[in-house]
Write a structure and sequence with these properties.
Residues 73-233 form the Terminase large subunit-like ATPase domain. The chain is of the alpha/beta class and 587 residues long. 37% of the residues lie in helices and 16% in strands. It has an eight-stranded mixed sheet with strand order 3-4-5-2-6-7-1-8, sandwiched between helices. Strands 9, 10, 11, 12, 13, 14 and 15 form a seven-stranded mixed sheet that branches.
Length: 587
């Protein structure tokens, strides 16, 4: 009896390999004969986007592709045991910069899969998030078939249905734009997911992909290939979770030999050094450099975007250099955004903040039903004097219904525990049989419960302990009174230009390590949404995008900062604020 195959799909030395232009495939094809057969087919397919040569044919994939493509093809098709038809590696991801022939590679792999497939009436599918992306994959596949007279004998293109049928096996390759109708009840055995980053913006994408991939569970030869660039926004939804899983497999954190990742991204040390701006290293995430994309073109486009230093630059870095966007740093960004991520302390929770601080204040910013209700607990650390910040937010389903563009992100923040999406039923008339039955809304109750915990710690000052945006907080003020917090402990914090000292001061604190925060993804997003608006002698914070660019928790943090500026003393401390003794208490 033959010994069982043993292999690992971890590639723990990928950082050295990617800089040295070495293969990112961690192991040789498990079944070399299967790999060679598929490579023979793949390399023979013609690329109709390129002009014909002297032999009156278009260049083939074998002539235009770099070795990394052949390594991927060999790994995919070489993972199927020819004796049993069972595929031992079933999920693959290729993360690669734009303009590296992604759609061409996708089309070639799927046409190859259709040709070498042995299952009668098999269904193969290229699943794309939009009709445009679907056509980007179908057109090169159609061209490959029509360009080869031999293929035209066995493969039939049905252009209006975006399908290619194998006339001998009855197998069909479908190229479809994803929605709930087209993928419901999917029976495909082989699936290629194009532009996974766009699926990450769809709130129900995870369930949709599970439905689309369900057919592969009953077919031993099944595989799924995800091909994508980086997102033009911080990763979210199914893209974020899938990317994290593939990274963990690659890094050896998760032992999953049925999953393989080929991720052309920057090692952390090169990111920190901004090496991605050096044209000499553009190849790191552009393995087809000088084939489908040139250094000169990338240099010219980068130079154009650097003039503005706006969102265009970040989108270029994400799409063409595969730099993951953590915060979209624009020219008009809040100046503290440059230092926000480096001042994250993920050990900071409400409990640890209370344990570390000698005095604590609370900032609240309440928006409408279309906004988040932001809460910030901030304190002065005992011994160091650093300002520590912990954030949480609440919203109602109205936001999910009205702002579908950010639903996936909000669900991620809910999953992380930083955002509460209220789910309590709302009474028809808002009242019970008598006034005593009235109960405050879920967000107000939970915010007050949190503030009550802070109060019970004894760390709140007697005056200026809770700072509120004065707009739309009457319900909260009433609820705070019920737990014994009223003026002068509860104060109104002036907004607009009146927050200027907090806007400027917190940025300086962050720059020089004088402030730390809990490091939540939600707050990185909120901070990235904050835009500085300069007057002749003032600075204000506004949203960079109306409707979707939520900043409420960040504004709560600025309200808390205004209170910390007063150098408060906890109620259980007998000393007096130096600023109070000097008559400088100003909100």
């Amino acid at each position: 009896m033959a010994a069982a195959l043993k292999w690992s799909t971890a590639c723990t030395d990928w950082r050295e390999r990617i800089v040295a232009r070495e293969s990112l495939v961690p192991c040789e094809p498990l079944f070399p004969t299967k790999a060679e057969d598929a490579l023979g087919v793949f390399k023979s397919l013609q690329v109709v986007d390129l002009p014909k040569n002297e032999s009156d044919r278009h260049p083939t994939l074998g002539e235009v592709c770099d070795q990394f493509v052949f390594d991927l093809v060999a790994a995919i098709f070489g993972a199927e045991d020819p004796a049993t038809g069972k595929r031992l590696i079933k999920e693959f991801m290729l993360l690669i910069s734009k303009k590296n022939g992604k759609s061409m590679i996708a089309a070639g792999i799927m046409v190859t899969a259709l040709i070498v497939n042995w299952r009668p009436n098999a269904i193969l599918q290229i699943l794309a998030p939009t009709l445009e992306v679907a056509n980007n994959s179908f057109e090169p596949a159609m061209g490959m078939v029509r360009a080869d007279p031999d293929l035209a004998v066995v493969l039939k293109v049905v252009e209006h249905q975006r399908q290619i049928k194998h006339l001998d096996t009855g197998a069909v390759l479908k190229v479809i734009a994803a929605d709930s109708d087209t993928v419901a009840g999917g029976k495909a055995s082989i699936t290629l997911i194009e532009e996974l980053w766009l699926f990450g913006k769809k709130p129900k994408a995870a369930a949709m992909l599970r439905e689309a991939l369900g057919g592969g569970s009953a077919r031993p030869e099944a595989f799924t290939l995800y091909i994508t660039t980086h997102s033009d926004e911080p990763p979210s939804g199914v893209f974020k979770s899938k990317l994290a899983y593939f990274r963990d497999v690659r890094d050896g954190v998760i032992d999953d030999p049925a999953t393989m990742a080929m991720l052309y991204e920057w090692p952390l040390e090169l990111l920190d050094a901004e090496t991605y701006l050096d044209p000499a290293f553009f190849y790191v995430t552009n393995p087809h450099i000088e084939r489908s994309v040139t250094v000169e073109w990338l240099k010219a486009e980068l130079a154009k975007e650097q003039i503005g230093e706006g969102e265009g630059l970040q989108i270029f870095l994400a799409k063409h250099l595969n730099v993951e966007i953590g915060m979209r740093l624009r020219r008009d960004r809040w100046r503290g955004a440059d230092y926000w991520e480096m001042r994250a302390d993920t050990t900071l929770t409400l409990e640890t903040l209370l344990a570390r601080c000698e005095v604590v204040v609370v900032g609240v910013d309440g928006g409408g039903l279309d906004d988040l209700y932001g809460l910030c607990v901030a304190g002065r650390e005992r011994g160091t004097g650093r300002w520590l910040y912990w954030f949480k937010a609440w919203c109602w389903p109205d936001v999910l219904a009205r702002r579908k563009e950010i639903v996936a992100q909000l669900l991620d923040y809910q999953k992380a525990g930083d955002l509460v999406i209220c789910d309590e039923a709302i009474p028809d008339d808002g009242m019970g049989e008598d006034d005593a039955d009235y109960e405050r809304p879920q967000d107000i109750r939970e915010i007050v419960e949190t503030i009550k915990r802070v109060k019970e710690s004894g760390l709140l000052p007697e005056t200026s302990a809770i700072g509120l945006d004065p707009q739309g907080v009457s319900d909260l003020v009433d609820a705070l009174a019920e737990i014994g917090l009223e003026a002068p402990a509860v104060v109104s914090v002036g907004q607009g230009y009146r927050l200027m000292s907090a806007i400027v001061g917190l940025a300086r604190k962050l720059k020089f390590s004088g402030a730390l925060h809990d490091g939540s993804a939600m707050m990185a997003w909120c901070v990235s949404n904050a835009k500085e608006e300069l007057g002749r002698q003032t600075v204000m914070i506004v949203k960079n995008t109306q409707g979707t660019g939520k900043i409420d928790p960040f504004m709560a943090g600025l309200n808390a900062t205004k209170l910390l500026e007063l150098n408060p003393i906890a109620a259980n401390d007998n000393s007096t604020s130096v600023y109070e003794s000097r008559g400088l208490v100003v909100l």
